[in-house]
What we know:
- The protein is mainly alpha-helical.
- It folds into two domains: 93 residues, no CATH class; 233 residues, no CATH class.
- A two-stranded antiparallel ribbon has the order 1-2. Strands 3-4 form a two-stranded antiparallel ribbon.
- Helix 5 crosses helix 14.
- The chain is globular, with a radius of gyration of 23 Å.
- The protein starts with a helix and ends with a strand.
- InterPro entries: Mtc (IPR004686).
Amino acid sequence: MADTATTASAAAASAASAATDAPPFQLGKPRFQQTSFYGRFRHFLDIIDPRTLFVTERRLREAVQLLEDYKHGTLRPGVTNEQLWSAQKIKQAILHPDTNEKIFMPFRMSGYIPFGTPIVVGLLLPNQTLASTVFWQWLNQSHNACVNYANRNATKPSPASKFIQGYLGAVISAVSIAVGLNVLVQKANKFTPATRLLVQRFVPFPAVASANICNVVLMRYGELEEGIDVMDGDGNLVGSSRIAARHALLETALTRVVLPMPILVLPPIVMSMLEKTALLQARPRLLLPVQSLVCLAAFGLALPLAISLFPQMSEIETSQLEPEIARATSSRTVVYNKGL
């Protein structure tokens, strides 16, 4: 009966929005095809849309209620596919897919760029002291740790000790690598002062990339021990798989290496060229605002590109998983929440 009601709601929504360009609404499914990189790119552009940060509590409740009405076949007449897609976008941007709880605003994916750009600017400031290097690496990894934890696969409970281990491991690795590389650069006598300054600007990337891997692995190590839930094509729970957990962590770690590349590599190159222009040489006070804009542009490009590498709901063949998982379902493939 519920399936019939849902089908009726889908038909009503489709008919009501036949004149629009919105595709037919599918509850819990992405609006754009996830089999292609371009489809995932458009999907994650929706997820990181900073406008969702300003959604009111009332609008969120309305969006959730609209989706509930669709699910139970009680959708009011005249609701369009566009309205349903918009409601689902709001829900996915604010509520965790596993716990259905609100994610704290600075740690949502839609808040990653607005709240992360000032940190990126700080990481790339020239002539860093030891204290400033430690501070910005600590702040960056603190932000990353909270974002990782807030957007983790939450189908299995994780103790706070795992979060603390991951956080401390990421901070120690990031600070150690950044400080060590800075010391090496300072002691490289064959570098000219200008070359030394340029090289120093690239120090944050290897520090951040390696720390990001450490952060992901340590904070989500429990998934490797306990496994993560895998589901068949109808959303039915099949079992808990440690092999799927390894795939999820590998994909997330690769994303965390690719993400800082444009953010921490492009701005130093662009700024080294812009600083030679007559405008910035005559007005050095513009350096920080210009660098902030360059970092914001690089961040805005890098984030959707990086997280589009793999679907959030990844698919894996059951033959690759544990024998008990393969025996528990007739589906050729199962899906799992990779996390972001």
